[in-house]
Request: fold
Amino acid sequence: MRPILPALGTSASMRYLTFGALYFAQGIPQGLQLYAIPAWMAVHGAGAATVGGYVGICTLPWTFKLIAGPLMDRYGFLPMGRRRPWLLCAGLGMVLTLLALSLVPDPLHHMGLFMAVSFVGNCFGAVQDVATDGLAVDITPEDQQARANGVMWGAKIAGVSATLTAGTWAINTFGFGHAVAVLALVLLAVLVLPSLLRERQGERLFPWSHGSISKEAEAMKAESWKEVMVAMKRVLPLRNSLVGCGCFMLWGLINGLIDTQWPLFTIQQLGWDNSAYANLTAGAGMVSAIAAMLMAGWLADRVGKLRISTIYLAVMAAGWLMLGLAPQLWPHSGYIPAFIYGSQCVVTFYQVATLALAMSLCWARVAATQFTLYMVCNNVGVALGAALLGPLHTSLSWSGLFLLFSVALTVLTLAWQFMRLGRHKTELEHLEQHHMERITASVAPAGSLVPDLGLPGPAQ
Reply:
């Protein structure tokens, strides 16, 4: 019987909808654990070191994506597709760990257990993120990647913002445990959509359904660990690959510092409560998410991913410089809210452009693993930035910290200027040509050459 819904590989609209749903689902635990809970902790008197330590623990598992990427390229249940089994299992794990988090008694006095459960939940979140990114790289045409990233990142910001507002209200109204349990059920409902869509026509929806392995999935499967590692060994040392790694890590460090300081600055320095902080941040997130879904991908295509990224960074650096030099304006109503709205929009647009840029840096044969590497560099930076907030805040005033952000953003702007996308594309073409020549040579006279384990196996 013909499936009611089209496969993701054949429908752009279903791809956008599904990627958006998956990224919205990622935003639920992140909005809770990276924003709502830190604000709740700040209200209850937690210091910068405690809040930063919790955010660092939540972001640390995202550095393990470097393991998850090759694991998914090497193993999978191909009758259901290359990525769907991984992302569905990881999504279920996210739901279960959120339910477990809701059962932790008096979290502020059981921080060890609280952090341990949060750590495990973010491990599942990282796996789902890798599976979603791998699926996007596998089945999204290059001319749709910027728009897809706009939808994905906008949906994630929307999920974070909605969770921050609703989660903060629910925590204050019904208590921590009940609020988190409800969010777990919302996450489960969002994950229904990807469970009903195949990657490619003819595959199974579930292990017990009818269907078979698609030719595309079978052709892309790595037949050995060495095949994945050899390809990465060839593409990673390229100059532009290394520049990308460095820039993504530096951005993560800056972003980790900025995101972690906001609840402390607004609540403990400006005297806001966590509801005011949550509502403002969520409103800014929603505005930026909608704007990103409508315009960010189009701008990246129109202006150029690299050029527009450096423009965004220059705007951010100027904004933090102005904020650091004018502390007398902080108490004025409307000043910090306007800055938060503007900053969130620019950050979201920058994220969309650089995610599309990361896809452009990937060699198609190991695109999922290579893309994951760039995201791991970013997440290592985020964890490091969150952990550094406490030590930096003890030696710098708020103005000094904001000026440090401006300097770091300026350095990142200059670092991106070492990127040469045209040269990198040529280098990738040479890698592919060399790879095909090796395949041809290896099958010339049967048995005359020692087989290269880095080449695709018979199934390809």
The two ends are 29 Å apart (CA to CA). Residues 8-429 form a domain with the Growth Hormone; Chain: A; fold (CATH 1.20.1250.20). The chain has one domain: 8-429. The CA atoms of residues 36 and 80 lie 36 Å apart.
